[in-house]
Design brief:
The chain has about 260 residues and is of the alpha/beta class. The protein has helices spanning about 55-65, 85-95, 110-120, 130-140, 155-165, 185-200, 210-215, 240-245; strands spanning about 1-5, 10-25, 30-40, 45-50, 70-75, 80, 95-100, 170-175, 205-210, 220-225, 230-235. The chain has a single domain (about 45-60, about 85-245), classed as Rossmann fold. It is about 35% helix and about 25% strand. The strands form two sheets. Strands 7-8-9-4-10-11 form a six-stranded mixed beta sheet, sandwiched between helices. It has a five-stranded mixed beta sheet with strand order 1-3-2-5-6, with helices on one face. Helix 6 links the parallel strand 8 (about 170-175) and strand 9 (about 205-210). It is globular, with a radius of gyration of 18 Å. InterPro entries: AAA+_ATPase, ABC_transporter-like_ATP-bd, ABC_transporter-like_CS, ABC_transpr_LolD-like, MacB-like_ATP-bd, P-loop_NTPase. This is ABC transport system ATP-binding protein. GO terms for molecular function: ATP binding.
């Protein structure tokens, strides 16, 4: 088992212990996670990096209750996922977790505003007016709320997705390659927005990425290789990330 030692005096948003996950059987068996233990700290922006097949997306999916591990445990804000029924997991994902995906995952027939408030509408709730106004100001989309996704640029669509992730004030926002479908300028704007939600709102953000430029916006980078945590880096820069990736032979594109 490989683990990252917990740092003192930091609140833990997600605690992951001894997580294993395999796919397939026999000769086709793939070990995606091989005893991963890591704490994701509250109020921090964490990047998870590694090459293709390192397990970074699987780790995020298991931590975010989108997939079930074979063994090990995940706690979100002190609440264990083990033993939860489907309805409880659905409620957890809706109320405690926010998601930002590479492909935006907006509903094409809904306006930007309807997409932002969709998770709350499904839950039969209305957004807190003060927080909703704060989120809209942060993403800078007040003039585009009546537009549908096909009337928005890629960067604007991803900002809608970020607003949707934030509107329920989740414990953690999970972002899976959030700049993967964006040009460099739009990507930088989305990363700056995620960085701002951590700095100004105390939001916890966990981002899977293969891009050192994107990871340099974070407080901490956790490196995976072959389904194991191999290192971490705090206060990262693009250069320090690339050096560490080369040193641990985890350089290269990944998903």
């Amino acid at each position: 088992m490989t683990s990252v030692a917990p740092a003192p005096a930091r609140a833990v948003a997600a605690r992951i212990r001894d997580l294993t996950k395999t796919y397939g059987t026999g000769a086709a068996r793939v070990v995606a996670l091989d005893g991963v233990s890591v704490d994701l700290y509250a109020g921090e922006f964490t990047a998870i990096m590694g090459p293709s097949g390192s397990g970074k997306s699987t780790l995020m999916h298991c931590a975010a209750a989108l997939d079930a591990a074979d063994s090990g445990s995940v706690e979100i804000d002190g609440t264990p996922l083990a033993g939860m029924k489907d309805k409880q997991l659905t409620a957890l994902r809706r109320d405690a977790l926010g998601f930002v995906f590479q492909s935006f995952n907006l509903v094409p027939t809904l306006t930007a505003e309807e997409n932002i408030t969709l998770p709350l509408a499904i839950a039969g709730r209305k957004p807190d007016p003060e927080w909703y106004a704060t989120v809209l100001d942060a993403v800078g989309l007040r003039e585009r709320l009546s537009h549908r996704p096909n009337e928005l640029s890629g960067g604007q669509q991803q900002r809608v997705a970020v607003a949707r992730a934030l509107v329920s004030r989740p414990t953690i926002v999970f972002a899976d390659e959030p700049t993967g479908n964006l040009d460099s300028r739009s990507g930088a704007e989305v990363l700056a927005l995620l960085r701002r939600t951590v700095a100004e709102f105390g939001q916890t953000v966990v981002m899977v990425t293969h891009d050192p430029v994107a990871a340099a916006h974070t407080d901490r980078v956790v490196f995976l290789a072959d389904g194991r945590v191999v290192d971490e880096l705090r206060e990262p820069s693009r250069e320090s990330i690339m050096e560490r990736m080369a040193a641990f032979d985890v350089a290269g594109p990944g998903a």
